[in-house]
Amino acid sequence: MPAPPTAGQFSDIAAQEMGGGPGTDLDLATVLRTGRDPQGPGRYQTLVCPGTLDGFPVLTFTAPWTLAEAELNAPRARYLRNLASGLADAHGWSARRTAAYLSTRPGAAGHWTVDALLAALTGRTGG
Questions:
Q1: What is the residue-level pLDDT of the chain in tens, covering all 127 positions?
Q2: Non-local CB neighbours of 124 within 8 Å, separated by 6+ positions
Q3: Which of 42, 9, 41 minimizes the C-alpha distance to 25?
Q4: First to last CA, the chain
Q5: 55-68 burial: b if 16+ Cβ within 10 Å, else e
Q6: Burial of 119 (C-beta count, 10 Å sphere; 0-12/13-18/19+)
Q7: What are the Cα distances from residue 70, in Å, to 8, 63, 67, 76, 116?
């Protein structure tokens, strides 16, 4: 099993996504203690720790707004195929079950029908 990223490596990636440059380590104390630390108002400026994996904290970053406040775009077929691959690997779902599930998710609902999504997942459409 590869070693988890260091705090410095995570800080570099987060800093780049937050619009800054690498080189300054983030203070992770708040996110590790509370699970959430807004660093600013922009996209990818809120640090999140949803738990641990193999004894190491799992860290990511996201926007500070809620799903209800977000302006959603319809996902592209290529992105949905990536999600579908993960669902198949993790749960053994068929393409039809995956298409039915993904067509109900925020962003896809109202933009993708089950049949259109099934065609996209099985390679019968572009995107």
A1: 677 788 889 988 888 888 777 777 889 999 999 999 998 888 889 999 999 998 999 999 999 888 889 888 999 999 999 999 999 999 999 999 999 999 999 999 999 999 999 999 998 654 4
A2: none
A3: 9
A4: 34
A5: eebebebeeeeeee
A6: middle
A7: 30, 9, 5, 18, 25
Long-range contacts, 94-103 (Cβ 8 Å, 24+): 95/121, 95/122
pTM of the model: 0.66
Which strand ranges, in their side-by-side order, compose the sheet holding 46-53?
Answer: 36-38, 46-53, 56-62
